[in-house]
Amino acid sequence: MLFHFVERKWWYFLLSGLLIVPGVFFLAIGGLKPGIEFKGGTLLDITFATTPSSTELHDFFGGLGHPEATVQGVAGGRMEVRTTEMLPKELGETEAALKERYGQDTRMDSSVVSPSFSAELIQNAVKAIAVASVLIVLLIAWAFRNFGWGAFRYGLAAIVSLLHDAAVVLGIFAILGYFLHVEVDSLFVTAVLTIIGFSVHDTIVVFDRIRENLRLNPGEALNPVINFSIMQTLARSVITSLTVVFTLLALFLFGGYSVRNFALALLIGIVSGTYSSIFNASQIVSLWQEVEDRLRHRALTPAS
Amino acid sequence: MNRAFPWLVGLVFVLSVFVDIPKHQFSFPFNCPGICLRIGDFSVNQEIKTHLGLDLQGGTQLVLQMKTEEIPAGQSVADYNERARKVIDRRINGLGVSEPVIQAIGQDKILLQLPGIDDIQQANEIATRQAKLEIKIPDKDNPGQYKSMTPPLTGEHLNPTYVSFDNANQPVVNFEFTGPDSDRWVQLSKDFLRQPVQITLDGTEISAPTIDTVFTSGKGIIQGRFTVESAKQLSLLINSGALPVSLQVIQSSRVEPTLGRDSVNKSLVAGAMGLLLVAFFMVAYYRLPGALAVFALLYYTALTYAVFRLIPVTLTLAGIAGFILSIGMAVDANVLTFERLKEELRSGKSLRVAVEEGRKRAFPSILYSNLATIMSAAILFYFGTGTVKGFALTLGIGVAVSFFTAVVVTQMLLHGAIEFASLRRRALYGVEERAPESPRDGREPRPAPAV
Question: For a Cys staple, B60 with which of A55, B91, B123, B379, CB 3.0–4.6 Å?
Fold first, then answer.
């Protein structure tokens, strides 16, 4: 069986584009919704004996001086209420008021972040992403140190495919944020960084094979070697991702509400990372070679 | 491999399982809740238990911001931070909260976790109450008002206060000034004999007793219509000392214990399902090596959990997610090895050679993979706070442990298995009985031959 991994590269690029372009559109119109961690404010997670309607709960919070409260029903008859920052005293009063209105077995989890602190959390996230990017580039440089003068194109291809994965995850969460009000928090940033690490490693495994096969078959054209190398590493790439997908799926389905979005982000990223390492990364190297060949060809046979 | 080595690996497994078992169910042969060792002067006495984070056991977390503008110029912010943490620590100790966390975040912030305290107002009181005791004297210019002495007479130099009962059987707080403040207190009783003085806490009056005799020592009492509880609380606050700087809550979260327990159960189900899915898949796809990998995975789970209990790592929801994720990743090393093993077998190698080659040739990739993940975990641990740190820590430890189990334990089992003739059939390794000639058409390059 011979699969045309390289020859059909434009189809694979197209599929990636179809995934990324809508995502980028929703990113651009502000679909990515920051959670209270990054925005500041109060998130109350309330469990009721008998769940009231969201408009009723909204009015209730309006009566407490929080007309800006947004109410959203979540799994298990719970309600999430988001308001501006509440100080501990106000939280205590709110809980007392809730218990009085909806019964003593009403339970309220709260999480409050003041806007000044969230600014710092954003800063931390940005720092982590910056440092991770630098280290990833160094890791790529180190992994390809034996690739000779061609190392640059491999490194670039690895970076493009990790940007691809980040774009897919960010884009899908922008769409989810736009339509379903899914918010992103520092765990989401964590997921993206984990995905990047995973994606780079996946790509390196494929490139390692390409290098090995190039060395063993001097004089062979690049494209067939790439195709064959992808075939050889295909089982490994798919199976490794599958086992991770299995555990993430378990986490997504059974792990409870608070880690669901985290598991989802990882899930999307791992699948995208596997796709990009099989269908994008090596194809970029091949494309580079083809462009280079064409330029050289043109240089050798000057246009008459 | 050394002959003693398999025994060592087995011993580690047995010890891990021993550490994993809750000790209230199984305390033989030790009559202590964890590791109790004494060799000469060296003694270990560590309780082994699973530490659950606030989101799993319920409780309150506060992040406190110091008002740094109150700190005199030239003074170290970190120094004030440490002093503030000590004060809070003393207050919490007086309350008897088990396993509180009081950490500095950066220079000017403090993280406070109070497991089991789910009254956020009480937590706030403990953390932000300045507790500055001051004695104020009558203000001659404004009758009925009080003013600070110069310099102010505060509760900074006091012996430990205690609660007793006065003649009317009301609880009162006893205090005693020390050093020069003791003399000032005596002097004050002479200057303001038969006049009221005001005892204030954070600027609010607690009581304003009238001085009716000249004091002979630095002793005094605070009467303030206390209950026993509130008198004790006041005594504790004064004894813990005043916060050197005002603190402000900038982040708070409170988790109900019941919701936390619910999360633990869900995570356990998710972990078990993940393990089961991976195990099922590995056996179905890789047959005998897959089954061995599942053993290695159980080994991995037992060892990692033991490490968590020993270090100890505080498990949070995100931390458990990292642990579960690492189960999936732990298999990667096995997959890399087994894929190579299959290739070597297909290229006509004997089983023994193929096992050895598979290990050797997969190793660099395994090393890369683990290093990359450990690196990202380290970054996340360094920059992250709270949940992110928990995830990074468990993921990092998990991957490090998996490096051991997947490389050492699986290989050992595999080497052991091929000693049995009945376990040497190629079909058991997911390869056809006879190695076919590798199919080639003209376009296909030679695969990397097994050396």
Answer: B123
